[in-house]
């Protein structure tokens, strides 16, 4: 099984497991989120140890160690991206499985189980036609001030949405043109979405335009821009202007 096939299979299977946990009716709210996280994480970690025993692994729900730092190949997973949305039985949550090679997100799969979709880095489709008025996906509960300011500056329509993966895939799927995030994330929040976005021809970087680098000792990633390439220069310029 290729790395891409493995990533997609694991993301899809974890998504089905999560839907079954939710449909069991045994949990609700935050308890459902914890149960889903634990169950999906156990599956993903055991499967990766079995299928790729020589690779490193970083998961949101697994205690991190320094072992992965000596590896060129590191899998980065988020068993449930958007635990709140999952617990609220919404559809805007995701499962992330990525393989980073020497810090670059080379392979990725993002499952959107609520929509019965898996988007893969090895199966990119053409970008949809952009909307006349750009749409910017933002947090449905905590829209970042910088994103709101940039949207105002370029005349973008704000589209509230749940998880990071759901927002990034909205750009990939043509439901939005821009995803600008400045509120802080971790490597597992963006590794798989960035791999998929780059494969589909989108721009993905830090908000200063620098590349996104993974498998770092400090897994915190302060900011992120995923957008259609024609908007990258304008958005980066507007962000720079906010700090001038």
TrEMBL record:
Its cofactor is Mg(2+). Mg(2+) binds at residues 60, 78, 81, 189. Gene3D superfamilies: 3.40.190.80, Fructose-1,6-Bisphosphatase, subunit A, domain 1. It holds the Pfam family Inositol_P. It comes from the Bacteria. CDD domains: CysQ. GO terms for biological process: 3'-phosphoadenosine 5'-phosphosulfate metabolic process; sulfate assimilation. This is 3'(2'),5'-bisphosphate nucleotidase CysQ. It comes from Qipengyuania gaetbuli.
């Amino acid at each position: 099984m290729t790395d891409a096939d493995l990533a997609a299979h694991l993301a899809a299977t974890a998504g089905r497991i999560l839907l079954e946990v939710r449909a069991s009716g045994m949990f609700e709210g935050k308890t459902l989120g914890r149960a889903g996280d634990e169950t999906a994480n156990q599956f993903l970690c055991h499967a990766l140890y079995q299928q790729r025993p020589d690779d490193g692994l970083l998961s949101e729900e697994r205690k991190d160690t320094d072992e992965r730092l000596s590896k060129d190949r590191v899998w980065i997973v988020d068993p449930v991206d958007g635990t709140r949305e999952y617990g609220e039985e919404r559809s805007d949550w995701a499962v992330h499985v990525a393989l980073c090679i020497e810090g670059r997100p080379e392979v990725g799969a993002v499952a959107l189980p609520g929509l019965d979709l898996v988007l893969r880095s090895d199966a990119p489709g053409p970008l949809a036609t952009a909307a006349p008025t750009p749409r910017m996906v933002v947090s449905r509960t905590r829209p970042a001030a910088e994103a709101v300011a940039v949207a105002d500056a370029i005349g973008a329509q704000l589209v509230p949405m749940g998880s990071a993966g759901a927002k990034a895939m909205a750009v990939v799927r043509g439901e939005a043109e821009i995803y600008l995030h400045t509120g802080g994330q971790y490597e597992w929040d963006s590794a798989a979405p960035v791999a998929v976005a780059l494969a589909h021809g989108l721009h993905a970087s830090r908000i200063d335009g620098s590349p996104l680098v993974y498998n770092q000792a400090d897994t915190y990633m302060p900011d992120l821009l995923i957008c259609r390439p024609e908007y990258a220069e304008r958005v980066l310029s507007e962000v720079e202007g906010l700090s001038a």
